[in-house]
Amino acid sequence: MRFAAVLLLLFFASSCRKNPIVAPPPKDPRTYTWTIDTLEYPGSLQTTMRDIWGSSPTDVYAVGDGGINAGNMWHFDGTVWSPINLPFGSFALWKIHGFSLNNIYAAGVRFYQTGWDSSGNPVVSDSSLLIHFDGTQWSEVKHNPRSAFLLGLWGNSPLDIWAGGLGALYHYDSTGWNRLSYPSDFAIQDITGFSSKDVYFLSYYYPSSAYFYWSSPNLCVKS
C-alpha cells in the first residue's frame, strides 16, 4: 500500500508539471465594460462633480457643486448614487480624501453674506471649508486662521493630512490643523505624495488683481 501511494503521488506530480495551471492575463483596460451614472441634483442649475474617493466598491463619494453656492455630495453604495444633505449653508466642495469608511475629509469654500451694497444687493464673502465624516455624520473642522477657498487635499495617514488653496497651506497632525506659511499670490490646486517627507503641491500664480482663479500651473515640491 505504501508503495502504491508513492506511485500515485509521483503520477499526480508529473501531471502537474506537464499541465500547469496558467493564470489568465490581466484584462486590458480598453476591454472594460463602462457604465454611465448621471448625477443631477434637484433644483440645481448644473451638477459639476470635481473629485471622487471611496473606501470600497460599496462606499464611494463624489463632491462638487450644483450651480452658484450650492455644494453637492453624493454617495454610491454599490447599486445607486444618493445625494447627501450637508448643513453648511452656501458652499462648494473641490476635494475629498479618506482613510476608512468612518474617517473621511472634504475641502472647499463656504459663502456668507457680510452686508448690503449701495444698490441694495447682498455683499457675499467666502472662507475655507473643511468637513469630516466619523461614520455617523459630517461636521465642520476648526482650522484657524481661515483662508479663502481650498482646492487641494491629501493625507499620508490619519495624523498626516495636507489641505491647500489660495495663499494657504494647512497641515493636520496630533495637535490638530495648523496653518503654515505659503505665498499669498499662489494657490494650491492639488496635493499628492508618497510619505510624510515626500509630498507634492500643484500650484498656480494668483495675483491679487486676478478675477479668475486659474493661471499657468507651477509645480512646488515639499520634501
Strand content: over 45%
Please tally the helical runs, counting DSSP H or I stretches of 4 or more residues. 1
Helix/strand class: mainly beta
CATH architecture type? 6 Propeller
**Tally of individual domains:** 1
Averaging pLDDT over every residue, what do you get?
Answer: 81
The succession of helices and strands, N to C, reads HEEEEEEEEEEEEEEE
Radius of gyration using CA atoms only? 25 Å
CATH class: Mainly Beta
Helical percentage: under 10%
- Molecular shape: globular
Distance separating the two termini: 68 Å
Question: What is the CATH superfamily classification?
Answer: TolB, C-terminal domain
Task: Draw up the topology in text.
Layout: H1 2-18, E1 48-56, E2 59-65, E3 71-76, E4 81-83, E5 90-100, E6 103-116, E7 122-133, E8 138-140, E9 150-157, E10 160-165, E11 168-173, E12 176-180, E13 186-195, E14 198-205, E15 217-222
Antiparallel strand pairs: 1-2, 2-3, 3-4, 5-6, 6-7, 7-8, 9-10, 10-11, 11-12, 13-14, 14-15
Task: Give an overview in words.
With 223 residues, the chain is mainly β. It has a single domain, classed as TolB, C-terminal domain (Neuraminidase, 6 Propeller), CATH 2.120.10.30. Helices cover 8% and strands 51% of the residues. It has 1 helix and 15 strands, in the order αβββββββββββββββ. It has one helix at 2-18; strands at residues 48-56, 59-65, 71-76, 81-83, 90-100, 103-116, 122-133, 138-140, 150-157, 160-165, 168-173, 176-180, 186-195, 198-205, 217-222. The strands form 4 sheets. Strands 1-2-3-4 form a 4-stranded antiparallel sheet, with no helix packed on it. Strands 5-6-7-8 form a 4-stranded antiparallel sheet, with no helix packed on it. Strand 5 and strand 6 (103-116) form a beta hairpin. 27% of the residues are buried. The model is unreliable at 5-12 and 209-217 (pLDDT under 50).
